[in-house]
Amino acid sequence: MLILYQKKMDTDIRCPLEYGLTVFGGKWKSRIICVLNSLGTLRYSDIRKEMSNITDAVLASTLKELIKEGLVERKSYDEIPPKVVYSLTEKGQSVVPILQNICAWSGMFFKEDVENEMTQCQRCDHK
Q1: CB of 77 within 8 A of CB of 84?
Q2: pLDDT value for 125
Q3: What is the rounded distance in angstroms from the CA atom of residue 85 to the CA atom of residue 64?
C-alpha cells in the first residue's frame, strides 16, 4: 500500500513571526529596505551601487519579492530613456523601526568588524 506524504499544516496557517521573517528576512531584503529608507527614492543602478556585493539577478528578484509584499513601490516614467525608480511604501516604512530594534539588539552581541562593515549598514541610534 502506497501512502503519499501529507503536510501537517495548511500552507496558509502561519505564525505571525514566520510571516514577518518571510516578508523582510533573509540576506538582502532588510538591507534593501534600509538603503531605501536612508537614501529615499532610487533608481535600480543606485540601489545596485549601494549593494556592492549583490548580483543583478538576486537584486532584481529580491526587489520583485518586496514589491509583491507591498514593501517597495516601483514607479516607471514614460520617457526616453526609460526611468524606473523604487521607494518604500507606507508598509515598508513601518518595517524600519523593527529592523532598527533588531540592529540595536544585534549590536549588543555582534563583535564589531570595522574592516568589513557594509557600506549600506547604518548605525541604529536610539535615545
Answers
A1: yes
A2: 46
A3: 13
- Eight-class DSSP state of 75: E
Tell me the three cell numbers of residue 116. Answer: 568589513
Q: Starting from the edge strand earliest in sequence, which strands make up the sheet with 72-77, in order?
A: 42-43, 83-88, 72-77
* Of the candidates 87, 97, 95, 91, the residue with the CA atom closest to the CA atom of residue 125: 97
Instruction: State how far the alpha carbon of 75 is from the alpha carbons of 13, 80, 98, in Å.
Output: 32, 15, 25
pTM score, two decimals? 0.77
Helix axis angle, 16-24 relative to 90-109, nearest 10°?
100
| Cβ–Cβ < 8 Å for 63, 84 | no
- The pLDDT tens digits for 76-125 are 998 888 899 999 999 999 999 999 998 888 878 776 655 555 554 555 54
> How many C-beta atoms lie closer than 10 Å to residue 31's C-beta?
19
Q: Closest Cα partner for 34 from 80, 81, 85, 102? A: 102
- Which residue, chain included where needed, has cell 528578484? 61
